Amino acid sequence: MLLNYFKTAVRNFKRNPFFSLINVVGLAIGISAAMVIYLIAQYDFGFDRFEPNADKIYRIVSVMHFQNNESRNPGVPYPLPNTVKNEVSGISVTAPVYLTYGGIKVSVPVTSSEIIKLKGQEHIVYADNNYFQLIPYHWLAGSIKQSLMQPFKVVLTASRAKAYFNISNPQEAIGRVVIYNDSIRTTVTGVVEDLKERTDFTFKDFISYSTIENSGLKYDFSPQWTNINGSSQLFIKVNPVVSASAIERQLAELHNKHVKNDGLKAQYKLQPLSDLHFNTEYSNFYQRQANLKSLYGLLAVAAILLVLGCINFINLTTAQAVHRAKEIGVRKTMGSSQKQLMLQFISETLFITTIAALLSLLLTPFLFKIFADFIPPDLHFSLLQQPGIIVFTLVLIVVVGTASGFYPALVLAGFNPVTALKNQAAITRSDTRSSWLRKSLTVFQFVTAQAFIIATIIVAKQIHYVLNKDLGFKKDGIVIISTPWSSSQTTAKPQLLLHQLQQLPQVEQVVMAGSAPAQHGFSTTLMRYEDGKTPIESSIEVKYADSSYFKLYHLKLIAGRYLMPSDSLKELLINETYARFLGFKHPVDAVGKMIITQNKHLPIVGVLADFYYSSLHTTIKPLAYSAVSSYGTDLHIRLKPDADGTAWKAALNNMELAWKKVYPDTDFSYYFLDDSVARFYQSEQNMSRLLNWATGLAIFISCLGLLGLVIHTTSQRTKEIGVRKVLGASVAHIIVLLSSDFLKLVLTAILIASPLAWYAMSGWLQGFAYRTTVPWWLFVAAGGIAVGLTLLTIAFNAVKAAVANPVKSLRSE
């Protein structure tokens, strides 16, 4: 019986090769997209699932509430870990960590006179033994209980031990010396196996946490509960019977006990381990984070493309039912039951779906390139290494095949044998349920395609708006170089590099200061203004610069003067928004007023015109500038115009040569400010590329289905067209007649999709404090694109049918 079903499926496939090809291609695109997105989702949702009792592991994060804003930070005050360990109940493991970022210089003594130096080492963390109780490692040498008990000890992963010492036996690393940044001299006390599971905990060097208190690092930490460093983080494991809310209540009591400042309201929240890889409000050790919205968007795209492929199959199969009516009538007359006929037709669907699935395996590598912006760097497509793909493909074949084939099988198997044998055409009248279903499904296809078109246009328009909006400062042709940081920070080397860069012919101006006007990170300080009434206190973002910085970036001064160079905190320059926040209607009124911060009274010497120092997702907030030179050792370089297209490249080469003279042991790196600003909108640009491809694929699948229906309709109406031409109908009249029904469906889809797309994209635009407009003509343009594509799809077959010789179509009458 099954063999007979298979033979029938093959014969039907060969009998209708064009329609079978449309079905196969539509389903193959949907299946391959689903396969790629399945791999991405499986990869990202598989992070940190291997830790014992992972649902009880949390990171304590800080949420600071001020009068005008809210600040979220993955770090905690430096005193908190020890206090939690001693005063909070219900916690079985308390594991503080201190993250390092940027490349660390590592020195490995080989002999008394030979030292191997390694630049730019990353994944280095300060931790204690409790860290290894949260994250399970296999120990190759040393002991989990003793390895990090004392200061200046380090545990290495096997790969890092081999890189440092070129050894094959981990025991050989014990007792060896590793020096970090020329100041932290450690002894290796343990070696652990590298984690093979997917995890955000990618550390390779674990320096004992107590080293912080016994080295110059302790001066980088403030003992104040009001100061939070994002690198100082705390992980805990909660007892099985204790809830996260109970721990958070105890943390709130700790805050109230140790923080007496009524103007500072802070919460310590418990972030689940499962949230670490996805929550972009808190960093995850500066590693790649997945975006849940993007993942759900990808899953939606996969589902939509699969549904569109299934719709093509349903439409074309039910439309062609008339051609199989006599076959079904004969089979029923010979004794076939409705159940047997349904199994036959579903098996034919499964056969076509299997061919589509095999084709999708060839398309998948191509789609990997399409979705490259969403694919993790270490995710690849391999049937041999990823057997789950085979299982997923088999499940898709069964689900998609059954979903696509059930209704057509039900329609075909339900034919009355007498009616089918007497009058095949009766079952394809335009008012039948099958016809209305086909029209509804076609409308759904074009509603989807039209919504994608509108969304693509609006996203592209918003991206163009944010990338080209005047931000209030100059950002083109500016290169920024960050000089190496050390605990014994001085400005001698940065100043030397600055003087060398000033001599380059391609450089117009060089300034040494803090961060650029717009950046991804931020630093805030608590500031208070007392006007004799209610004190105004808030956390204010602070940047460091002098007058030359403001001139380089063309920042406009609207009151007072610029900052004078200084080596200590003496005065402030604020933005317009901060002046208004303090209650001054005119910026000039703020000049001379005193701000209290860090136990100092500082005068406001000037007011800057507002500029956008963050992404346009958020409104402009209060900002203050100070001129503390030791806080700003970034070099801001404005290049001369690149007239011949080679000057900037030569400038960068010369900068690297100058860098190597001053910092021979450190790699040269730089970035252009306009590129950094563009990265504010990386997720939107990724979304735009996704919509471009999703729109293209959705239109392609929809037009394939429409093409099949047009060919079927023209073949069914061949004799009608012949009669009309004999009676005097023109070619234009015939084309309009054949096109009108399909255009009505597309116009209906446009009317449905436009308000739905407008509602959805209006919600998306609400995520921007500053956004583009959505004019009415945009929807007209999107509708024109859909109508144009429809006419192109219909045109050839409609014209071919209209110009055909009516004698041939009527010859059999």
Automatic annotation (TrEMBL):
Pfam families: FtsX, MacB_PCD. GO terms for cellular component: plasma membrane. One of its GO terms (molecular function) is transmembrane transporter activity. The chain crosses the membrane at residues 21-41, 295-316, 341-368, 388-415, 436-460, 690-711, 731-756, 776-799. It is a multi-pass membrane protein. Residues 300-417, 696-804 form the ABC3 transporter permease C-terminal domain. Keywords: Cell membrane, Membrane, Transmembrane, Transmembrane helix. It comes from the Bacteria. It is found in: Cell membrane. Coiled coil: none annotated. The keyword Transferase does not apply. The keyword Membrane applies. Residues 20-253, 467-653 form the MacB-like periplasmic core domain. PANTHER family: ABC-TYPE MACROLIDE FAMILY EXPORT SYSTEM PERMEASE COMPONENT 2, MEMBRANE COMPONENT OF TRANSPORTER-RELATED. This is FtsX-like permease family protein. It comes from Mucilaginibacter robiniae.
